[in-house]
Structures are given as structure tokens and as C-alpha cells.
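Complex 431.
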Amino acid sequence: MTGLTIKDIIITPIAATDPPLLNAAGLHAPYALRTIVEVVTHDNIIGISEIPGNSDIDDALEKSKEIIIGKDPFQLNQIRDAIESHFDSETTAQRGDAPWDQRKIVHVFSAIEVACLDIIGKILERPIVDLLGGKRRNMVPFAAYLFYKYKGAGGKLEFGIDRNATGWDAARQAEATTPEGIVKQAIFMVKEFGFKSIKLKGGAFEPQQEVNAIKALYAHFGPNVPLRHDPNAIWKLETAIKHGKSMEGFLEYFEDPVRGQENMAKARQALKMPLATNMCTTSFEDIPKSIKLGAEDIILSDHHFWGGLRSSMELSRICSTFGRKLSMHSNSHLGISLAAMVHLGAALPEVPYALDTHYPWQSEEVIVGGRTKFEEGAVQVPSKPGLGVEIDREMLKILHKNYLDCGLKKRDDLVEMRKVVPDWEFKQVRW
Ligand code: GKR
Ligand code: MG
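Predicted structure with D-glucarate bound:
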């Protein structure tokens, strides 16, 4: 074995405090699960990555060790081929009906690819953005991501609150179920992070209530702050067209109003505003039908489920070829994922829309130096070699203990919702 080959892969599931956020599939648990992956070479160079936490994905990662250990981290094509032939192939349908993606192989490859790029960057003494073709911007803009929520901060406090909290901390813990509550949340989030665009996670309340929230945001922030609404595919086509029409002129784009590419194409025909998706076109195999039908205007990529950073660059070229815009989707995450998103955001040919991030909802961190700073809603592209962030070993231990103590193994917003509304049911299409 040469010094450069991979000698070990360390998989550490963690749980980070997450508030009770509502969405079309239920309620966030008191902890968001993430998995921290370390790929170690014989020379003891460690590359790191972060992916959504899910014990099935962790098991798949564990199984991939036997084919990845011994490989050269520069040989990413070989590693991808080995992973693809080792596991049964997955279809888009396996992403599931929930707003988050439940496929395994894409996440496994993303975890290994980002960690290998981190190693390559460290060896070449170059930031990952340089491995993606180089930096096109120094600051990567993100959007405020508003959620309807119950009162509470999540974590050990469960649904409790810190009575001394002020500013964004207090807003993060406050209930937000009405248009006024959503506007208040937006004011504090925008003040704290400087975001210039706002997204509302919808699909939690009946459509008119959410439309009223969008109009209340518009009334408060005015026409220069772009707004988006995302009901996570839970509206009927008629509902999306009726309420979509009433939001024309208020929204920068409308995200996954309906389920499936066919319905998205019909909604797109009927509405005079761009449609975006992270639920109907979610993999390369979905692209031909998306183009044929005209399912959306904007694809919200996510390197965790599009198979890594280089795949996301390939996606950007496909998008521009077929007249699509590319932006970025997010789930609850910490700073290692954020750093990867920022490197990708810096390399993309264009960033026409501020990228999504759940980051303001988390309060802990697993990287040295603590929480990543936002300036005017944007994050500076790291310039250190690789990802430019390192694991805080003490925090990793603490967050791993949270994982062991909390007993959660994968995200299930239905289970959490039933703790507060016992007869609540998930519906593919609700309104
Ligand atoms: O965290 O509740 C949530 C979101 O609904 C998330 O799971 C979605 O995947 O943010 C996502 C989206 O844009 O659909
Ligand atoms: Mg979405």
C-alpha cells in the first residue's frame, strides 16, 4: 500500500439540537441527525464530509469500506464505479414521498467524494473550489429559510424554551403559526444573518393561511426582497393553480407546489412565475422527462443526493444547456456540509438565486472555531486547503453522545408529529 491510499473510513453518527419545525411530512424531532465521515490515508491525511444521518445509509457506508479501503482518493471515477457495482442500483422512486431524500448510494458516494476532495485539496494545498475549476465569487449568498413551528428549541430542552433568550435566539424558540409569527421570525432571522431573500417552508397549514403569510412578508419587506414558497408537493394541481395565481407578482419562484413532473408541468403552464424543484427532478435519470414535459424552471441541486460536488457541476452544465437555472436545496446541517455547499456555490457558473440553508436553525457546531459567520446573508469561500474546516473532536464526542442518548436512528417527522397530534396522518396530497 502506498502512503496515498485509503486505509480507513470512520463513520460517526451525531445528533444536533433541532427545533420543532413543521412541514408537509410532520414535525422535526428534537435532534437533527447527521453523519460525519472521515476518510484516512496511509499517510494519515484525513478528509472529512457530512451527510444526512440515517442508520441505513451508515450501514451502506460501513459496507462500502471493503471496496474503498486500498483505493487512491484521486481515483474518484474508479471509486464511483466500485460503489455503483457493489450495491443494487437505486431508482428515483426510492427517494420516497417525504420532502427529504432516502436513497443510499448517492449519499454514500457524496460522503466519500467530498472527503476525498478534502484529502486531494490538502495534498495539493488548494481549496476544494479550485478542484471544481476555480472560484467565480468570493461570497456565496444564502436565503432566510422560514418555518412554521411549535414553541421550543429542541434538543434536551425538547419543547422547552430559554426564558432569557433575546433576538434571533428568542425568535428561534418562539411559536410561529400565523402570518404575524412568520413575519416576526423573518425580521429576526434577516437581522441576525443579513439575508436578502426569504423562503417559507409551506405545506404545514391550509393554503390560504400560507398565502397570507407570503403577502404579509411582502407587505413588510417590500418588492426588493425576493420571496419563495415551498409546500413540498402537497397541494392538488387546482389548489396550486388557484393559490399560485394569487401569489404571482409576490414570488421569485414557487417550489414544488405539486407532486410529480406531469403535475409540475401543468402548473408551470398555468402560472406566470418560475417553478423550482427538489422533489420532482432529483437525479440525472429524471432529466429527459423533465425536459420533455417542461416540469420546472429551476433545479435545486443538493450535493448530498446528486452524488457529490463534481456531479453538481455536471448538473449545472445540463441545466444551462436546457434552459434551466440551478440553485441549491438544504436540509438541517452543520458546518462541514455548509463548507462543501459554499465551495460548490463559489464554482458554479452563476448563482441566480440565493441558496437554501437550514443553518440558522441549528445552534451547535462540529467544526473548530464554532458557528460559521454570515456576512450580509453570504458566506466567504474558505481559502485553506481542502474543505477549509476541521472537526472539533470534543464537539464530535458530545454530538455523538447526543445521538446515542436520543435513540433516533433516522428522520421520521410523522412519528414526531403524532407525539403532539396523535391522529395526524401523512398524505401525499393534502389540499
Ligand atoms: O427540513 O422540514 C424540512 C424541509 O422540508 C426539508 O426536509 C426539505 O427537504 O428543505 C427541503 C425542501 O426544500 O424541500
Ligand atoms: Mg423544497
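The domain at 131-380 is CATH 3.20.20.120 (TIM Barrel).
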